Amino acid sequence: MKEVRFSVLNKIQTIISSVAVGCNHIKEINHKLVPYSTVANLLGMERFPDQSQINRLLRRIGLKDVLDLERSLEINIGRYILNELPEKIDIDIDSTGLVVLGDTYEFSQKGYFPNKRGKEGYQLTLASSSSFPKFILGYILDPGNIPPGARLWDIIYQVENVLGDLCRIGIIRADGIHGIGQDIEGLLEHGFSFCIKGKDPRTAQRFARDLCYEDWYPIDYLTRVAEGGIREIPNCKYPTRVILIEEITGKGKKGYRHLYTDIPTSSMDEVETYTYYKERQDIEATIKFDRNGFNIGNLRTRKFYGIEGFLSLSFMTQNLINLFRKKVLSQTGLEKLGMQELVEILMDIPAKCSISDNQLKLAFPMHHNLSRAFFEEKKRE
Prior knowledge:
It is a single chain. Among the domains are: 8-63 and 296-380, no CATH class; 176-278, Transposase Inhibitor Protein From Tn5, Chain A, domain 1, CATH 3.90.350.10. It contains 13 helices and 12 strands. It has helices spanning 8-20, 29-32, 37-42, 51-60, 63-81, 152-163, 181-189, 201-208, 270-278, 281-292, 304-327, 339-344, 369-380, and strands at 89-100, 109-110, 120-129, 136-143, 169-174, 193-197, 216-218, 223-231, 240-248, 254-261, 352-356, 359-363. The longest helix has 24 residues, at 304-327. The termini are far apart.
């Protein structure tokens, strides 16, 4: 692109800033960023570029640019994030559909979108660290006609590229789209530890017939779990440990689900395994927030590579905010705020900024309850 007043870097900085302050659409840059020239000065600009220049950038992103942005995301993780993670990193893998309206979105296809039969869009596969805060370690964007579970191995090896070593991957948690015999067999053959929901509830129902009342342990009024033992499972040549889950549905009927895992009972019993798996709902919340908070459902452009480039910048921003949560907000109580609250409330606190002795200084209004909580904790330190 031509760089007359703003460089490509300036425009990328603007996109990251727009995500961080909760711009739901590109046009919101005009009133959430452009008026604040002081902030732009800190990034080496006289002011932020307006929406038209960001739109042109996203439309002109090509394959090479996407690869550069993906590499930037990996470097960002390697430089700032990996030191914050344990040596063995448990990862969560999930996918979601990004539905589009209209037939002008590049490479959008009809596919599996729950409760949206016949719609077109894209499939997004996402991998994140399991521990809080959850850092995004990899993503893959596909046309909507790619099965949601088809990218398990691609995302695992993408995470390996980021971590630098497959041995750093701990337990893999994933939803039922990956709970099929072929995937379980592959994970066992490659030596990965896993805890994955089985895909077909009929298999769980069949296993549950062998159990008696004493085998079930109550979790709450609606849920019980049981150790299913080592079982032969469909399309997998290796017997696998099974945890059975019985739930009472809204209509008062019993429903059965199951988990596949290689974690031995000596390390986690059935209740601990179930509880550990339930924690993976955080990534579902992450995806839900990304769609509602960062509004990645508003794809900003109809060009496929532009969408993919925007996702790279969006996930990079999320990682930086999580790093801010860990490094700056730690012990203030504010680190427990949801990502949506951080972006829409904390980031929206008005402040005066200045530079003195090459250090950035921020002056926050003390009447704001969040800034007051932050500074009271820092004063105690």
